[in-house]
């Protein structure tokens, strides 16, 4: 019999234990191995919990137990998760994690430690919760040259934006509801300011392009400034505002990664992804494009991905099948936002096709759509966008907001 240890008995960790015991027989049949959860590491006690007798408080109990071959890390944060996961890998125990901050900041180092110690470091749950995205990129789509990925990577902000769109709630009201329903944390900044989506973009970019992309290299803007007026204007132009995380290889080979609110046209599948669901579009030379969709957060959806990784660890034995990317010692391969090009939606004080056309002409772009209180212009970079805004202001039109449009 081989034993599993779960680090962290919060929402995800308890979900891993619950799902494991629910499907234990099936999992053992699938892996051809008898398995059990031996330890649950947490600072707290859980009196009355059916697995309270498995709770330990000292990582060395797990590290020194040769029966424990697999570890599910569900603690979150970098410290002490990094020390614990490194020590487990150094002891030859394969690790599956749901911790996106850990992978985004330390994935390169942990993958190397795993390889050196003939074990695996898997992180399917770190992007898109239950959605299989990491493994398909690494295996099913591995015969392609993947050029880009973009999508909705944060369920909380997607829920808030949907409430603004469908129920005409203001940002604060929608955030309050998300907190009441347990989607958003008391301190919602990691979700609403984009850090959570940024970490997921780092993981996708590192995996796709083979070199670690750190959070500092991803332009990140959250949804705090998005108003009901912005959402309503987007709707009148046939778009929904979504927080989009993206990474793409530019023609010069550099990588441009970003998180920002974007107006998504209704003919894009992504515009119809609502609530706490996530969706990721991936572009590659052989398969053209494909979309991955599912529950991006929550106890059992995330546990599903963690357990899938544990099952893969069991099947892999000591063969290293985890993905790898190299450490980046410089940022020469990273492009800045001056290389970002997209159509843009502007919300303005006064409307008028003529005034938009005049300003667009002087900036060298086209007006693609107009509506009461705004317009959408053709693809342009930030410099051109600034000159369009200046031209509008010179014509006496105040610009309240500029939101890039997601072009397919
Ligand atoms: N806070 C995250 C979200 C949880 O809302 O998507 C899953 O990473």
Give a structural overview.
The protein is of the alpha/beta class and 408 residues long. The protein contains 14 helices and 16 strands. The strands form three sheets. It has a six-stranded parallel sheet, with helices on both faces. A six-stranded mixed sheet has the order 8-10-9-7-11-12. It has a four-stranded antiparallel sheet with strand order 14-15-13-16, sandwiched between helices. The termini are far apart. The protein binds L-homoserine. L-homoserine binds next to helix 7.
Radius of gyration: 23 Å
The low-confidence parts are none
Helix % is 25-40%
Shape annotation? elongated
Chain-averaged pLDDT: 96
> Element order, helices and strands?
EHHEEHEHEHEHEHHHHEHEEEEHEHEEHE
Distance between the termini: 50 Å
Percent strand: 15-25%
Number of beta-strand segments: 16
The hetero molecules present are: L-homoserine
Structural class: alpha/beta
Question: Number of DSSP helices?
Answer: 14
Largest sheet: 6 strands, parallel
Sequence of strands across the biggest β-sheet: 3-2-1-4-5-6
Topology:
Blueprint: E1 2-7, H1 11-22, H2 24-31, E2 35-41, E3 55-56, H3 59-63, E4 68-73, H4 81-90, E5 94-97, H5 100-116, E6 121-122, H6 134-138, E7 146-152, H7 155-167, H8 171-180, H9 189-192, H10 195-209, E8 219-220, H11 228-236, E9 239-249, E10 255-265, E11 277-284, E12 288-295, H12 299-316, E13 341-348, H13 353-363, E14 367-371, E15 374-381, H14 382-394, E16 399-404
Bound molecules: L-homoserine.
Question: What structural keywords apply?
Answer:
408 residues, alpha/beta, 6-stranded parallel β-sheet, 6-stranded mixed β-sheet, 16 strands, 37% helix, elongated, binds L-homoserine
